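Researcher: Next entry in the queue.
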Amino acid sequence: MKQDTDMNRRRFLGQTAGVAGLTIVPGVMLYEVQARPADQAASSSVRWGMLIDTRQCDTGCTDCVTACKTENGWGSTETKSSPEQQAQWIRKVKLTDKQTGHVQSLPLMCQHCETPPCVDVCPTGASMKRADGIVLVDKHICIGCRYCMMACPYKARSFIHEPLTDQKPHAPRGVGTVESCTLCVHRIDKDGTPACVEACNAEGHKAMYFGNLNDPDSDISKHLKQHGGEQIRADLGLNTGVRYQGL
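Model: Structure for this entry, 247 residues:
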């Protein structure tokens, strides 16, 4: 019976997703994220991407993770959850070369693939890719099946197990749904930069670059042309929007 009730609730949310805000329970409002300017659709002439220079990424630095948590409101409200159940839109991982002992540190998040496996397996269309390459989850129609989590080779998605409070209007989150890095789409649609990139550059690390991969004159394209860039699991042929240097 509870499962039927949850399914009916989500169908209702999906049917009413066109409104600016929806009251779930008294005093709690779920806001629809526009994910683009109101008068302009996302265009395939743009391919947003990120370049991470692991040679400039300090092992002990978590500025990018902290900035993402602050900007999008995840992590701080889930202190009662076990570590395995806490959201991770972005996380720092350590790579160790077993032969040489060389250690690298790098941030890992949704790779915003050109052909995202998460989108392929989603039964409702909640996992989607915008024309400009940003991969998102529509919380109104996500049924929490978690197929996308199993399909993601980067373990970049999280499932919300517990009710949340103090959410950000631009980053709605709900129990029973899946979430991941959005590249701070609300900032991009206002000609801004993802919070992680902004924080990294503000501290002078300059390990992260963001921009239009389709524009040969953008900073990110120039850096890729001059120094190159690698994909994590390039063998999968996903053409990721996030590239790394120094791997």
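Model: The helical segments are 2-15, 63-72, 117-121, 147-151, 185-188, 195-202, 219-227.
Researcher: Noted, moving on.
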